[in-house]
Batch of 2 targets.
Target 1
Amino acid sequence: MLMVDVIRKKRDGGKLSKEEIDFFINGYVAGTIPDYQVSALMMAIYFKGMDDEETGLLTQAMLHSGEVLDLSMIPGFKVDKHSTGGVGDKTSLVLTPMVASLGIPIAKMSGRGLGHTGGTIDKLESFKGFTTSITNEEFIENVKNVGISIMGQTKDLAPADKLLYALRDVTATVDNMSLIASSIMSKKLAAGADGIVLDVKSGSGAFMKNDDDARELAKKMVAIGKHAGVKTMAVISDMDQPLGRAVGNTIEVREAIDTLKGKGPEDLLKLCLTLGSYMVCFAGRAASTSEAEDMLKEAISSGRALEKMADFIEAQGGRREDVYNTTASLPRGKKRFVFNAEKDCYVSSIMSEEVGNASLILGGGRRSKEDVIDLSVGIYLTKKVGEKCRAGEPVAKLYGNDEAKLSEALERLKGAYAFSDEPVPKNTLIRGIVE
Ligand code: URA
């Protein structure tokens, strides 16, 4: 088979066969097909698309390009969760201990932040001593003994995706539905869970800028999961403003812990209860999502979810007391700048991406993979969409360690907000469910 024929077929709108898809994925990983030919194919796919069968075959080829984790030695139904990425998204930090506290094993691989979006691993490293650099064996032992473990994605997991993603990033071919769906699902399926709950973000701060696109992506991913024999569903959730009120690293962990203590923001709790209820139902622990939600609420009110978080942090090198006293253990930046309302008004919109960029300017995010980040900096959104501001009241607070960066971030943050003299409805958080 010749790669040039595969490229030509897709360029002309043809449908690729399993043999052709396996050929280019295996050849790319082996180094026998060069970047420039795969770039050309990615661009052809970008313009001509792939149908569901091709997308499924591409996912399978990427999934089997490396190691597939075997979690069968962990008793129970293992359920994973994935978010397509957003600003202020600390859902995993709340959801995983909450669900694990009900005796449902959580074996999760997470990533670091890049650009305007954060990553679970960076956030968790806010706890002194905590590490996700553990072996597969330690990961599995922790899930067995503690009920929950989170590790960084190993380099052996879906290596084809790693290569392809890096190539797509520099050839303007990231935002294609089939390429995104296969990229995410190949990694999720390789991580070995029995069930996957997806949080597909929709809005200005997300890959998918509107609900129709988010639903299409969700449907593709759910179909891929089910076809692979893994229970899969998706929640479509709002990213037309950041989730919760905290954006950064330590500041987000504090908000997540507050939520586990029953004192978190309403939207974050609601999203965690919705995603969590499907995880509980998938695991066969509740007959309905409303029954599952009640179980999750009880896990919070009884303190069991928080205790599970402490068990988890301790098992991976942190100190359990740091979970209970985040004011001391997770310090915020030493300097604070405040964005005050100029007059009485209502918040009409907040561009999530720009809030993420303001956090990046403070030093809380990476422009490139090698950047070292300042975990203590961040932003607190005192006012969100639909909320009333009185003249002189804080709209948002910025925490940092460098006045020049704080000034620049403050200007950027001001540009992210829009106000109205008239009342504005609050955003709808849950935009849809795809089962
Ligand atoms: N996240 C991924 O893992 N892959 C994509 O293609 C887009 C977002």
Note: The longest strand covers residues 195-202.
Target 2
Amino acid sequence: MSGQDNTNATDTTTPGKVPPAPKGTLKKVRVGHLQEMKASGRPITVVTAYDAPTAALADKAGLDVLLVGDSVGNTVHGFETTLPVTMDMMILHTAAVARGAQRPLIVADLPFMTFQVSVEKTLENAGRLVSKGGAEAVKLETNDPHVLSSVERLVSAGIPVMGHVGLTPQSVNATSGYRVQGRGEDAAKALLEQSLRVQEAGAFAIVLELVPATLAQQVTERLSVPTIGIGAGVHCDGQVLVFHDLVGLTESPPRFARKYMDMRAGVLRGLRKFARDVREKSYPDTGHSYE
Ligand code: KIV
């Protein structure tokens, strides 16, 4: 895409608690930059975000892409699966993320049954995520060959599409739970072929979820568009984690998720201390009251 010099990001926010974005990182990230990153071997960093303050922190930390995942159904709304997530929920969360972050590319998930019904419905729903939510690209689960014509239509309408193969949580009822995909020769071949078809349909990147590392490496080497792995080993062009897994808010995170901090313990400690202070009447003290 752009041949412009896109380096030299400046941190204009208040100096303080959160470290600034690494120097020399891209300014506003566009879909074409991810292609350039694959070509230059620079790993693409992606995290899910569902609200404005988290999006602002992820921006400040220098993340390249914010994914407003339909995992919001599990992480924020307390559902067992992503199936109950609606367009209205996705628009609300995407708009909040778009208000919070400037530099990262903002990608929003199309939820269950908003892209499986028809090409026209898919276009309408993706258009709403862009025009009302401020998404700069949409992601859809692309294991099903029927969705390829929708991918083509979105791309020709100017809506960049991120594909998603391997484990696709919206198919949880058909895949008997959350299992590693693409094991065995036939399954591996099918996954590679489907990834190539998704690329052919015009996707600018493809998420590989819960795929053996060697297969993810093969797919990454065969595709010209970047792969973004989650539970797919180190050879993908980028990595995505669910924010709540990364910061230690998830009670039982998946094995592949590294916990970078223990937010559950910190929040629990703070809440318990507040409750104790209120009960003991040591809060609010004079320093936190008005004359
Ligand atoms: O919804 C989501 O958060 C996702 C990621 C796990 C890739 O699709």
Note: Residues 31-260 form a domain with the TIM Barrel fold (CATH 3.20.20.60).
